[in-house]
TrEMBL record:
Family matches, as SMART domains: Dak2 (SM01120)
Cellular-component GO terms for this entry: cytosol
GO BP annotations, alphabetical order: glycerol catabolic process
Protein EC: 2.7.1.-
An example Gene Ontology molecular-function term: glycerone kinase activity
Organism: Arthrobacter pigmenti
Record's protein name: Dihydroxyacetone kinase-like protein
InterPro entries: DhaK_L_YcgS, DhaL_dom, DhaL_dom_sf, Dihydroxyacetone_Kinase
Pfam families associated with the record: Dak2
PROSITE patterns: DHAL
Domain annotation DhaL: ranges: 6-206
SUPFAM superfamilies: DhaL-like
Amino acid sequence: MALNAQWAEAWLRECARVLAEHRTELIELDRAIGDADHGENMHRGFSAVLTKLDDGGQETPAAALKLAAMTLMSTVGGAAGPLYGTAFLRAATALGDEREVGASGVVGFLTAARDGVVARGKAEPGDKTMVDAWTPAVEAAGTAEAAGATAAEALKAAANAAQAGAAGTEPLIARKGRASYLGERSAGHRDPGAVSTALILQAAADIAER
Ligand code: ADP
Ligand code: MG
Ligand code: MG
């Protein structure tokens, strides 16, 4: 489908569905290196987004993403709430009043989201955080766009790269967030926030493909 307001709304609804489905997995990942609440936090946040979407009235992709940002900031809590809130808010700002997002728009909003996460959390690639999913996603979308990909193809490339990035956090030692308290014992587990980022980007790509 075209990446319009309906896409953005369907993406957020798919996030809620997928995060509910992966709630236990994210809890277990966070139990290993954190405080076992990431699945709960994300499920609560996106359930609240669903309720807000039901009120309707989002006429642009940015409006839907901004609604999600505000809701996530006020309902998710922990580290992930402000990080995802900032990501979605910056993405919305990057999209402005565009009604249909093209491939360069995909690169633009993903870059803005990633930059927002970095501005907020100060993590670098390799610190074993969600940045390790966002950054390869941004790079892959950029490469795809430069090669002439459609918006949906750019999103798919981003989602695949995020998934690989999340898998790649397993051997890393955490240097930011709660997992960093574990030091070397944080190695051997995937970062929960990198996994949730991969799920969120996969949802965006799946809806775009319909
Ligand atoms: P909390 O750690 O407060 O319980 P969550 O469990 O919901 O919050 O989220 C944890 C995730 O947040 C981590 O897996 C990591 O991906 C992400 N995170 C934590 N701190 C940072 C940071 N400084 N920069 C980027 N991401 C971070
Ligand atoms: Mg946690
Ligand atoms: Mg917590």
